[in-house]
Amino acid sequence: MTRNVAIVGTGHSKFGNRHDVNMPELAWEAIKQAIDEAGIEQKDVEFVSFSNVGGWSSEGLASVVSLEYAGLTGAGLYRVEAACSSGSAAIKAAHDAIASGEADIAMAIGLEKMNESPTPTVIEFIGRAGNFFWEFQNFGLTFPGYYALYATAYMAKHGATEEDLCKVAVKNHYYASLNPKAHFPIPITVEKCMKSRYIAWPLKLYDCSPITDGAAAVVLASEEVAKKLTDSPVWIESIGVSSGTSNLSRRDDFLHLEAGTLAADRAYKKAGLSRDDIVKHVDVAEVHDCFTIAEILAYEDLGFAKRGEGYKLIRDQETYKGGKIPVNLSGGLKAKGHPLGATGISMAVDLSRQLQGRVEKERQADIKVGRALAHNIGGTGHYAYVTLYSLSKPRR
Amino acid sequence: MPSQKEQADMFLKQMESFANEMKKAVGVPIIPEPKSGAQLWYDQREITLKFLISVEKTKKFFHEGLAQGKLLATRCKKCGRIYFPPQVDCPYCKTSEMEWVELPKEGELVTYTIITTRPYSFGHYPDYTVGVVKLKNGVQITAWVRETDPKKLCVGMPVKLEIVKREPEGYYTYEFVPIEEE
Q1: What is the least distance, in Å, from the CA of B143 to any CA of chain A?
Q2: Which of residues 17-56 of A touch B (CB under 8 A)?
Q3: Is residue B181's pLDDT more than 80?
Q4: Per-residue pLDDT, A1
Q5: Is residue A24 part of a domain?
Q6: Could you tell me if A246 lies within 8 Å of chain B, comparing CB atoms?
Q7: A333: in domain
Q8: Fewer beta carbons within 10 angstroms: which end of chain B, N or C?
Q9: For B99-154, how does the pLDDT look when each residue is reduced to its tens digit (9 = 90+)?
């Protein structure tokens, strides 16, 4: 049995340094909005998949702690981990529970409180998100370092420049400045980015997503229940998933993320789409821009640009609103912030609101075909999720 | 100039001494967060993370490899695949019939980065370069490259592997050194 699944409620906390709240208080900000929007009560939620990476934060079982605080205790529950794509994994788990007929109403809740530890500790934990023994223990790679390996190879091969990378940061900071939920709602210039200090050469401070606290939540429902709850459901049209090697030394090249490419092809195939003309079939996309180079790789892995030409899309401003394919009108991970477990769900929340035409006017995309794309990578292409959201009910 | 590790330790020490003063003054370790002023509970529990990782099946890599100045990999006796990092099982042939082979030392730099903002446990080192090198036989290795000036590094440059003692810890590991071109 495979049933249609719709998003019927969305919730999103303010992202930032949230020293004003503890972990369950932060989760509740998103949970309350989502259940209010859906018009349901806690007792209606049969199943929760909870995404939280943790390590840097105090509550080991953040899922259980948050459900107790939110009055959701008793719902079926597990925590999912897919590094930075944990949120998309949680959506898939909740989706599958409904699609299979196991539940009619389920929630995916993402929470990350990274600022409970000092920055060097957080850098240590994310640096271990790869292969601890062979690549971290002796060589101290960091998360910016892993993506810098891609940036160096990409720039050397295709002639992209550090300015091109900074142009991604400028775009995403511009859209963050229009998004009140963003961690850094401040516009920047290419000059400011170029003058920022190196974190992992060739990546500079403004090439990197910040260390962010945040929560996001969605309520998912079966077709039958969704019809009763809302006139404007956002359907999960298809989900493509893949994975990559833990050791970066075992990658064929440092010019693309194979897992992201595979996940895209799988998602497109299920929806009857092709990477060749995908930009005509998507109104707006949120892509995984943990670092500026990652957004450029995503353009190519998703088929928005040919191999080796992704940087030209940002050079030509084709990923701004009104361009060939608007990307990260939320501000992206780069400037909205990247609370790991919440990120994939934050993408779903913002894209649902985009499709329904209810985000801030200046960053609202033109919705013509009624389809949005979320591209969420875990680690450095270690996990990959591509999810298509649609205003049209998928045909089964 | 204190190292990044010393700076991180100093930051926590300051918070701790402030928390201790608060315990004396008001009886609870609650301190204001330096930027926002939000009230924070200073954790009264502390753990050290130190893992004990089995190398029982790969001990040759260390004793007969690194300690003898060699970098070893494993090769599947059935299909000939070379594994680095060494695996003692070939998942494709579903066999554990593997042999140890020495890797060539020369190769070329595939990509690299210079790490300036470092993890806590690397905060006592100066900046370091991490590269991925393709050896003559096609096997790729991640390791430090002994050059931190970006002007003296480029993709494709020839490098040579050396077995070195990592200081101040004092243990054998491997790193790459640029080969001076004539």
Answers
A1: 6
A2: 17, 19-20
A3: no
A4: 63
A5: yes
A6: no
A7: no
A8: C
A9: 999 999 999 999 999 999 999 999 999 999 999 999 999 999 999 999 999 999 99
Residue pairs between chains A and B whose CB atoms are closer than 8 Å: 118
Chain B residues touching A251 at Cβ < 8 A? 140
Where residue A263 falls among pLDDT bands split at 50, 70, 90?
very high
- Please tell me which residue in A12, A84, A193, A382 is annotated as part of the active site: A84
Tell me if chain B has a CB within 8 Å of the CB of A131: yes
> Is the per-residue pLDDT at B182 higher than 60?
no
Q: Is the complex ipTM higher than 0.90?
A: yes
Q: Identify the domain containing residue A102 by its residue range.
A: 5-117+211-229
> What is the domain count for chain A?
1
pLDDT at B180: 80
Residues of A with CB below 8 A from B121's CB? 124, 140
**Closest chain A CA to residue B121:** A124
Digit-coded pLDDT (tens) for A32-71: 999 999 999 999 999 999 999 999 999 999 999 999 999 9
Best of A132, A207, A249 to mutate (most B CBs within 10 Å, chain B): A249
At residue B38, the pLDDT reads 97
- In-domain check, residue A96: yes
Within-domain flag for A376: no
Overall fold of domain B104-182: OB fold (Dihydrolipoamide Acetyltransferase, E2P) (2.40.50)
CATH number at residue A80: 3.40.47.10
pLDDT of A330-362, one tens digit each? 999 999 999 999 999 999 999 999 999 999 999
**Domain layout of chain B by residue ranges:** 55-103, 104-182
Question: What pLDDT is attached to residue B50?
Answer: 94
